Hints:
This protein is an alpha/beta fold and 202 residues long. It has one domain (6-201): Rossmann fold (3-Layer(aba) Sandwich), CATH 3.40.50.300. The protein has helices spanning 36-44, 86-102, 121-132, 149-164, 184-201, and strands at residues 6-12, 25-30, 62-67, 71-75, 106-114, 137-142, 172-175. A seven-stranded mixed β-sheet has the order 1-3-4-2-5-6-7, with helices on both faces. α3 links the parallel β5 and β6 (137-142). The longest helix is centred in the last third of the chain and has 18 residues, at 184-201. The radius of gyration is 16 Å and the shape is globular. The protein binds guanosine-5'-diphosphate. Guanosine-5'-diphosphate binds next to α1.
Amino acid sequence: MIITSASFVRSSVTVSQCPPPDKPEFGFIGRSNVGKSSLINMITGSKGLAKVSGSPGKTRTINHFLINEGWYLVDLPGYGYAKVPARMKESWNRSVQEYILKRENLACLFVLIDSRHEPQNSDLAFMEFLGLNGIPLARVFTKSDKLSPAAVWKSIENYDRVMLSRWESLPATFVSSTLRKKGKEEILSFIQETINNLSKLA
Length: 202
Ligand code: GDP
Protein backbone atom coordinates (compact mmCIF):
# COMPACT_ATOMS: atom_id res chain seq x y z
CA MET A 1 0.00 0.00 0.00
CA ILE A 2 1.23 3.47 -0.85
CA ILE A 3 0.14 6.29 1.45
CA THR A 4 -1.16 9.16 -0.65
CA SER A 5 -2.82 11.17 2.12
CA ALA A 6 -2.73 11.24 5.90
CA SER A 7 -4.50 13.85 7.99
CA PHE A 8 -5.45 14.39 11.61
CA VAL A 9 -9.20 14.11 12.17
CA ARG A 10 -10.00 14.35 15.88
CA SER A 11 -8.89 13.71 19.45
CA SER A 12 -11.49 11.95 21.57
CA VAL A 13 -11.82 10.92 25.19
CA THR A 14 -14.84 8.64 24.77
CA VAL A 15 -16.03 6.36 21.97
CA SER A 16 -19.05 8.58 21.38
CA GLN A 17 -16.71 11.45 20.44
CA CYS A 18 -14.86 9.35 17.83
CA PRO A 19 -15.61 9.87 14.10
CA PRO A 20 -18.51 7.80 12.70
CA PRO A 21 -17.42 4.13 12.46
CA ASP A 22 -17.81 4.07 8.69
CA LYS A 23 -14.28 2.99 7.70
CA PRO A 24 -11.98 0.15 8.79
CA GLU A 25 -9.84 1.23 11.71
CA PHE A 26 -6.37 0.15 12.87
CA GLY A 27 -5.23 1.07 16.36
CA PHE A 28 -1.70 1.39 17.73
CA ILE A 29 -1.07 0.90 21.43
CA GLY A 30 1.77 0.02 23.78
CA ARG A 31 3.53 1.04 26.93
CA SER A 32 4.69 4.63 27.12
CA ASN A 33 7.92 5.28 25.23
CA VAL A 34 7.69 2.05 23.21
CA GLY A 35 8.14 4.04 19.98
CA LYS A 36 4.47 4.35 18.96
CA SER A 37 4.56 7.91 17.63
CA SER A 38 7.76 7.22 15.70
CA LEU A 39 6.21 4.10 14.17
CA ILE A 40 3.02 5.94 13.16
CA ASN A 41 5.09 8.66 11.50
CA MET A 42 7.19 6.08 9.66
CA ILE A 43 4.14 4.14 8.46
CA THR A 44 2.33 7.23 7.21
CA GLY A 45 5.48 8.87 5.86
CA SER A 46 4.60 12.11 7.66
CA LYS A 47 7.14 13.32 10.13
CA GLY A 48 4.93 15.36 12.40
CA LEU A 49 1.65 13.43 12.34
CA ALA A 50 2.12 11.87 15.78
CA LYS A 51 4.26 13.78 18.25
CA VAL A 52 7.50 12.06 19.26
CA SER A 53 8.76 13.14 22.64
CA GLY A 54 11.24 12.21 25.32
CA SER A 55 8.64 12.40 28.08
CA PRO A 56 6.67 9.17 28.50
CA GLY A 57 2.90 9.14 28.67
CA LYS A 58 1.99 12.18 26.66
CA THR A 59 -0.78 10.73 24.48
CA ARG A 60 -3.86 11.02 26.64
CA THR A 61 -6.54 11.01 23.99
CA ILE A 62 -7.74 8.68 21.24
CA ASN A 63 -6.36 10.32 18.09
CA HIS A 64 -7.87 9.54 14.69
CA PHE A 65 -5.99 10.02 11.43
CA LEU A 66 -7.64 9.50 8.04
CA ILE A 67 -5.40 7.60 5.63
CA ASN A 68 -5.90 7.53 1.85
CA GLU A 69 -9.49 8.70 2.46
CA GLY A 70 -10.26 5.03 3.13
CA TRP A 71 -9.25 3.94 6.63
CA TYR A 72 -8.51 5.30 10.07
CA LEU A 73 -5.24 4.97 11.90
CA VAL A 74 -5.73 5.48 15.63
CA ASP A 75 -3.07 6.53 18.10
CA LEU A 76 -4.20 5.26 21.51
CA PRO A 77 -2.95 6.36 24.92
CA GLY A 78 0.07 4.41 26.15
CA TYR A 79 -0.39 2.10 29.11
CA GLY A 80 2.06 1.22 31.86
CA TYR A 81 4.38 3.49 33.65
CA ALA A 82 3.04 6.90 32.61
CA LYS A 83 4.06 9.38 35.27
CA VAL A 84 0.60 10.58 36.21
CA PRO A 85 -1.54 10.35 39.33
CA ALA A 86 -3.26 6.96 39.74
CA ARG A 87 -6.67 8.62 39.48
CA MET A 88 -5.86 9.94 36.00
CA LYS A 89 -4.36 6.64 34.91
CA GLU A 90 -7.62 4.95 35.84
CA SER A 91 -9.68 7.28 33.69
CA TRP A 92 -7.34 6.71 30.70
CA ASN A 93 -7.64 2.97 31.14
CA ARG A 94 -11.41 3.26 31.28
CA SER A 95 -11.59 5.26 28.08
CA VAL A 96 -9.18 2.92 26.24
CA GLN A 97 -11.07 -0.15 27.46
CA GLU A 98 -14.37 1.35 26.39
CA TYR A 99 -12.89 2.15 22.98
CA ILE A 100 -11.49 -1.37 22.52
CA LEU A 101 -14.67 -3.13 23.57
CA LYS A 102 -17.15 -0.88 21.79
CA ARG A 103 -15.52 0.40 18.61
CA GLU A 104 -17.31 -1.69 16.02
CA ASN A 105 -15.05 -0.85 13.04
CA LEU A 106 -11.80 -1.76 14.82
CA ALA A 107 -10.21 -4.15 12.32
CA CYS A 108 -6.97 -4.77 14.21
CA LEU A 109 -5.07 -3.46 17.18
CA PHE A 110 -1.28 -3.36 16.80
CA VAL A 111 0.28 -3.97 20.20
CA LEU A 112 3.78 -2.49 20.30
CA ILE A 113 6.39 -4.28 22.38
CA ASP A 114 9.93 -3.05 23.04
CA SER A 115 12.25 -5.71 21.55
CA ARG A 116 14.84 -5.11 24.24
CA HIS A 117 12.89 -6.33 27.23
CA GLU A 118 11.99 -9.69 28.74
CA PRO A 119 8.24 -10.45 28.48
CA GLN A 120 6.47 -7.75 30.48
CA ASN A 121 3.44 -8.57 32.61
CA SER A 122 1.60 -5.45 31.48
CA ASP A 123 2.01 -6.39 27.78
CA LEU A 124 1.03 -10.00 28.39
CA ALA A 125 -1.98 -9.02 30.51
CA PHE A 126 -3.10 -6.50 27.91
CA MET A 127 -2.89 -9.02 25.06
CA GLU A 128 -4.73 -11.57 27.19
CA PHE A 129 -7.50 -9.02 27.73
CA LEU A 130 -7.73 -8.58 23.93
CA GLY A 131 -7.74 -12.33 23.30
CA LEU A 132 -10.43 -12.99 25.90
CA ASN A 133 -12.61 -10.32 24.35
CA GLY A 134 -12.07 -11.51 20.78
CA ILE A 135 -10.32 -8.33 19.65
CA PRO A 136 -8.09 -8.92 16.56
CA LEU A 137 -4.50 -8.03 17.36
CA ALA A 138 -1.00 -8.09 15.90
CA ARG A 139 2.32 -7.64 17.69
CA VAL A 140 5.01 -5.19 16.62
CA PHE A 141 8.44 -5.60 18.21
CA THR A 142 9.91 -2.10 18.10
CA LYS A 143 13.42 -0.56 18.19
CA SER A 144 14.97 -3.67 16.62
CA ASP A 145 18.06 -1.65 15.62
CA LYS A 146 19.08 -1.63 19.29
CA LEU A 147 19.67 -5.41 19.19
CA SER A 148 21.25 -7.98 16.90
CA PRO A 149 18.75 -9.84 14.67
CA ALA A 150 19.32 -12.99 16.72
CA ALA A 151 18.54 -11.16 19.95
CA VAL A 152 15.32 -9.77 18.43
CA TRP A 153 14.18 -13.28 17.52
CA LYS A 154 15.07 -14.41 21.03
CA SER A 155 12.79 -11.69 22.44
CA ILE A 156 9.96 -12.80 20.18
CA GLU A 157 10.55 -16.43 21.16
CA ASN A 158 10.39 -15.47 24.82
CA TYR A 159 6.96 -13.93 24.27
CA ASP A 160 5.85 -16.89 22.12
CA ARG A 161 6.80 -19.34 24.83
CA VAL A 162 4.70 -17.60 27.47
CA MET A 163 1.79 -16.92 25.12
CA LEU A 164 1.64 -20.43 23.64
CA SER A 165 0.89 -21.81 27.10
CA ARG A 166 -2.36 -19.82 27.06
CA TRP A 167 -3.17 -19.13 23.40
CA GLU A 168 -4.24 -21.59 20.70
CA SER A 169 -2.36 -19.66 18.03
CA LEU A 170 -0.09 -16.64 18.02
CA PRO A 171 -1.06 -13.27 16.56
CA ALA A 172 0.60 -11.83 13.44
CA THR A 173 4.04 -10.51 14.32
CA PHE A 174 6.13 -7.66 12.91
CA VAL A 175 9.57 -6.29 13.67
CA SER A 176 10.17 -2.55 13.32
CA SER A 177 12.93 0.02 13.47
CA THR A 178 12.22 3.63 12.65
CA LEU A 179 15.96 4.21 12.51
CA ARG A 180 16.38 1.61 9.75
CA LYS A 181 12.94 2.13 8.16
CA LYS A 182 12.09 -1.48 8.91
CA GLY A 183 8.58 -2.92 9.16
CA LYS A 184 6.71 -0.29 7.19
CA GLU A 185 5.99 -2.34 4.05
CA GLU A 186 5.02 -5.43 6.03
CA ILE A 187 2.61 -3.56 8.30
CA LEU A 188 1.01 -1.68 5.40
CA SER A 189 0.59 -4.91 3.37
CA PHE A 190 -1.08 -6.51 6.38
CA ILE A 191 -3.45 -3.54 6.70
CA GLN A 192 -4.27 -3.71 2.98
CA GLU A 193 -4.90 -7.45 3.17
CA THR A 194 -7.18 -6.98 6.20
CA ILE A 195 -9.14 -4.27 4.38
CA ASN A 196 -9.45 -6.53 1.30
CA ASN A 197 -10.74 -9.40 3.45
CA LEU A 198 -13.27 -7.12 5.14
CA SER A 199 -14.62 -5.91 1.80
CA LYS A 200 -15.00 -9.54 0.65
CA LEU A 201 -17.12 -10.18 3.74
CA ALA A 202 -19.29 -7.11 3.22
P1 GDP B 1 5.90 6.75 22.28
O1 GDP B 1 5.94 7.38 23.63
O2 GDP B 1 5.57 5.29 22.36
O3 GDP B 1 5.06 7.48 21.26
O4 GDP B 1 7.42 6.75 21.75
P2 GDP B 1 8.18 7.78 20.78
O5 GDP B 1 7.87 7.48 19.35
O6 GDP B 1 7.95 9.17 21.28
O7 GDP B 1 9.68 7.31 21.02
C1 GDP B 1 10.27 7.28 22.29
C2 GDP B 1 11.78 7.36 22.15
O8 GDP B 1 12.27 6.19 21.48
C3 GDP B 1 12.22 8.55 21.30
O9 GDP B 1 13.42 9.04 21.85
C4 GDP B 1 12.46 7.93 19.92
O10 GDP B 1 13.42 8.65 19.15
C5 GDP B 1 12.97 6.55 20.28
N1 GDP B 1 12.65 5.54 19.24
C6 GDP B 1 11.42 5.28 18.72
N2 GDP B 1 11.48 4.30 17.79
C7 GDP B 1 12.78 3.94 17.70
C8 GDP B 1 13.49 2.95 16.90
O11 GDP B 1 12.94 2.21 16.08
N3 GDP B 1 14.85 2.87 17.11
C9 GDP B 1 15.50 3.63 18.01
N4 GDP B 1 16.82 3.46 18.15
N5 GDP B 1 14.87 4.57 18.77
C10 GDP B 1 13.53 4.72 18.62
